[in-house]
Design goal:
Blueprint: E1 5-10, H1 14-25, E2 30-36, H2 39-49, E3 53-56, H3 65-75, E4 80-84, H4 88-100, E5 104-107, H5 119-129, H6 134-150, E6 168-173, H7 177-185, E7 195-199, H8 203-216, E8 220-223, E9 234-237, E10 243-249, E11 252-258, H9 270-280, E12 285-289, H10 298-306, E13 310-314, H11 324-330, E14 336-338, H12 340-351
Parallel strand pairs: 1-2, 1-3, 3-4, 4-5, 6-7, 6-12, 7-9, 8-9, 12-13, 13-14
Antiparallel strand pairs: 10-11
Helix pairs in contact: 3-4, 4-8, 7-12, 9-10, 10-11
Length: 353
Amino acid sequence: MSGKIKVLIIDDSALVRKILRTICEKDPGIEVVDTAQDPVFAVEKIKKFLPDVLTLDIEMPRMDGLTFLEKLMMQNPVPAVMISSLTARNAEITLRALELGAFDYVEKPKNIQELETLAETIIEKIKAAGHSSARSRLISIINRSRSTQEKKETPALITRQISTTDRIIALGSSTGGTVAIAEILKLLPVNIPGMVIVQHMPGTFTRSFAGRLNSICSLHVKEASDGDQIRDGFVYIAPGGLQCSIYSSGAKYFIKIQDGPPVNRHKPSVAVLFNSVANYAGKNAVGVMLTGMGDDGARAMRQMKDAGSFNIVQDEESSVVWGMPGSAVKYEAHNIISPLGSIAGEIIKAVSK
C-alpha cells in the first residue's frame, strides 16, 4: 500500500459511506483505511490509521462536522474534503469550514445515488488534498489565518491616494481561494478600482460568500448582477452556475451575467472573465490569479498581458494548490509572482502607476 493516499470517510449515512468507498477504491492511487459514522468514532480512527485525507459531512450526530473540524485543525491538521448538501444554511457552514482549514468541498446531490456521477471530481480533490505538500501548506495557512484574525486594526494602506481613472481589477481563484480573497480584500483601501472576482463555487454559495466578505473589509462586496456598472471601492463576486464577463460603454465598464456552457469544466469560468477583460480593458486592467486546481484562465491571462494588462500570480509556497497560478506562469502570463501576503500591496502599486 506504500505511496497510496490514505483516506478516512466520515458520514452518518451508510449508503454515502459505501458509495464513497467504491469511488475511492476504483483509483489505484487511493486506499480507504476505514469509515466512520460520526466524528466521535473518527477521532480514534484518525489516531490509529493516520489518514492523509478525510472526507467529511457537515451535519452528523453527536458532533457536527464544523465543530469536529475546528478541534481537528487545532490539534492534528489533516486535509479535509467536505462532502455535503449545499443548502443556503450549509453554504454558510461550509464557508466557515474553509476558513477553519478545510481543503475543498463537493456538493452532495439530492439523489444520493447520483454521487457516483461526481467520481472524477471527488478523486481529483482527494488527490490534490493528499499531495505531499498539502499538509504543510495547510498548517501554514491556518497559522497565518489565526494571525490575521488577531490583527484587527485598520490597515495603514486605507489612506493611500490612488489614481483610479478607467481601471479595473480581475481576479480568478479556486481551491483555497475563499480564504486568500478575504486576506487580500482586508488590506485594500476604499478607493481601489472596481474588482470582479470569479471564484469556482456553486450558486448556493456566492451570495453568502459576498456577504461574508462584505462584513470583514472596508470595500462594498456584492454578488454581481447583469448590467452592474463597475465602480471604485466595489467588489463583484461572479454568481455560481452562470458565466461572468465585462464590457465597456464609453469610459465605463459593466458586468454581463449570462447562462452558457461550462468552460474548462467551470461555470463561472475565470477564462470567460479574463478573455473579456483582455478584449475590453487591455492596459487599464490588473489581473490576479490565486490558488486553485487545474488551469482555468491561464491562457486568457496571457491574452490579458498581451493586451497590456499588469498581471500578478500567487506564488507556489503560499498557494493551497498551485494549479491555476502555476499554469499562468507556464504561459508566461505574469508580470510578477507574489506571496499571498504581498498581493494587496502589489495591486495598489499596479493601479497607482
